[in-house]
Specification:
This is tetrahydrofolate synthase. With 434 residues, the chain is an alpha/beta fold. Helix content is 39%, strand content 20%. The protein has helices at residues 5-14, 25-33, 52-65, 94-114, 122-137, 174-177, 181-188, 205-217, 258-275, 283-296, 320-330, 350-358, 395-404, 418-430, and strands spanning 42-47, 70-73, 85-87, 90-91, 141-145, 160-166, 198-200, 222-224, 230-235, 238-243, 246-252, 304-307, 311-315, 338-343, 363-369, 390-394, 411-416. The longest helix is centred in the first third of the chain and has 21 residues, at 94-114. The chain is globular.
Length: 434
């Protein structure tokens, strides 16, 4: 009998990270042995290349303020693993996670004894734990963030889906999803459910056409940004929102950046769609909830200020699309000096990302490394990288050097891999920084 939290985590992380066969065969068999908890849950699925975490955070707060008990499933975590499964922003307790792992471990052993190819991956195990936990706890709604894909994702199972949100589509995880925007769009759009509404952000034209086609084939009502709904920045920290139900002016947000307003708009569109059906809220009532909930939303590591003097901001821009969004956002900051500390995994488009950052005229780039996870390693620094920035292999030294070089009217920005951001954030919160 498993009674130790660390042993439970060790078991989860001992599972294969990715299985060769991309299908729902393993997760469906594990859920079957659990009694199909997913079939008892009302879910909202969030899929896309970037922005999923922010959309989940905004939507969770909107639903909680409306009086619902909301489960959220996200990845990766920022501080502790338990953050991946939360109810009303409270992470799953250690004892509950340990109990659930003890419950599924013999089921998995039986599956593998029956057929060695049935052994679920790490993410499939976590997904099954999530469905079991939320069903046991009787949440009103579960917001489920997809892992890597859509059609091939472990979360694409037969739960009671109320809505699908597709945030963005860009080149990422190409070794799994395909090397073109079209291939990735087809996989992401695989999460669109028959006769279930779909809310969509700004997509490349090719991806947008694929999403529209699949939505039409599956009779999914489509709500697209800049068509059925839109937003307009008003200040650096407020925007207006418009849809068929009316206009909500002066929506305040503490999360900085135009792309954060876009993520908030997607969450509001999803909420307003649900407010007409599942939630049964009048437009005026939902508008009041929107203003309160968006203002209250926080998402660690997303345009987050962690130090005041000099100002230090963390942003998990972990692929080329996210780096482009960050660079667009930097144009709105009046700070004259921007010192950017950047590190990313080796399996990302590291050179394209650091080149894009170096193209910003006000940016001085500090390139560094961090401790990877399992077989995933930090991108190594090469002599050629010195052309586009200052090379400081030890990340604490890199951050300290950037901060010391930042004047009072400037800003230090730490960006790149979400694991790197998590590591730096924990360091700041522990208080042993300069």
């Amino acid at each position: 009998m498993m009674t130790d939290y660390q042993a439970a985590l060790q078991y989860i992380h001992s599972r294969p990270r990715i299985q060769k066969e991309a299908s729902q065969r393993r997760i469906n068999e594990l859920l079957r042995r659990l009694g199909h908890p997913e079939r008892q849950l009302s879910t909202i699925h969030v899929v896309g290349t970037n922005g999923k975490g922010s959309v989940v955070a905004y939507l969770q707060q909107l639903l909680q303020v409306s009086g619902r008990r909301v489960g959220t499933f996200t990845s990766p975590f920022i501080v502790r693993f338990n953050e991946r499964m939360m109810i009303n922003r409270t992470p799953i307790p250690d004892a509950e996670l340990t109990r659930l792992v003890a419950h599924v471990k013999p089921l998995i052993a039986a599956m593998e004894a029956q057929d060695s190819t049935l052994g679920p991956s790490e993410f499939e195990v976590i997904t099954a734990l999530m469905y079991q936990y939320f069903n046991e706890q009787g949440v009103d709604l579960a917001i489920v963030e997809a892992g890597i894909g859509g059609q091939s994702d472990s979360t694409n199972v037969a739960d009671r889906a109320l809505l699908t949100v597709i945030t963005t589509i860009g080149l990422d995880h190409m070794q799994i999803l395909g090397n073109t925007v079209a291939a990735i769009a087809r996989d992401k759009a695989g999460m669109i459910r028959k006769q279930v509404p779909t809310v969509v952000g700004r997509l490349p034209a090719e991806a947008n056409h694929i999403v529209q086609t699949i939505a039409q084939q599956r009779q999914s009502p489509l709500f697209q940004l800049d068509r059925q709904f839109r937003y307009q920045p008003q200040t650096r920290t407020s925007f207006s929102f418009r849809d068929s139900q009316g206009i909500i002016p002066n929506v305040p947000t503490h999360m900085l950046g135009d792309f954060e307003m876009e993520d908030a708009a997607l969450a509001i569109a999803a909420f307003r769609t649900l407010s007409q059906t599942t939630l049964q809220l009048a437009p005026g009532q939902s508008a009041r909830i929107v203003r309160q909930a968006i203002r209250q939303t926080r998402w660690p590591g997303r345009m987050e200020v962690v130090h005041a003097n000099p100002k230090v901001l963390l942003d998990g821009a972990h692929n080329v699309l996210a780096i482009n969004q960050l660079c667009e956002t930097l144009a709105a900051f009046p700070e004259r000096t921007l010192n950017v500390v950047f590190a990313a995994f080796a399996d990302k488009q590291f050179h394209q990302m650091r080149t894009r950052l170096a193209q910003e005229p006000r940016v001085h780039l500090y390139l560094t490394t961090f401790q990877g996870s399992g077989t995933r390693k930090s991108a190594p620094l090469q002599p050629a990288d010195a052309v586009t920035g200052t090379l400081i292999p030890e990340w604490k030294t890199a951050v300290q050097t950037a901060m010391q070089a930042t004047p009072t009217d400037g800003m230090t920005i730490v960006t790149g891999s979400l694991l790197f951001i998590s590591t730096v954030r924990n360091w700041f919160l522990q208080g042993d920084k300069p």
